[in-house]
Design brief:
Blueprint (H helix, E strand, L loop, with lengths): L2 H94 L1
Amino acid sequence: MTPELKNVIQILKGKIHNIEELHSKVLVENQGLKEEITKLLTEIEELEKENDLLSKKYESLKLAKTIAASSSDAHDAKVKLNRIVREIDKCISLLNK
């Protein structure tokens, strides 16, 4: 083997070693990123569940508020209707006299 060929082989061995080191680093980084993706997907899923729960609570609150408003409106309507009925009764009694 000529010295030039030995030199080229040594250079290639060094470059291959560097590539192997870079490959190992990339594999470790890739694994870390996969774990982070899994963690973030889990977090997204939990946040979506929380969002659904809060949306349901909000809808329930809106419905309760609507019912509460309707019941007070219904009471007011009954009072007005009773007043009108009494006035009609008075008018009828005046007409009967």
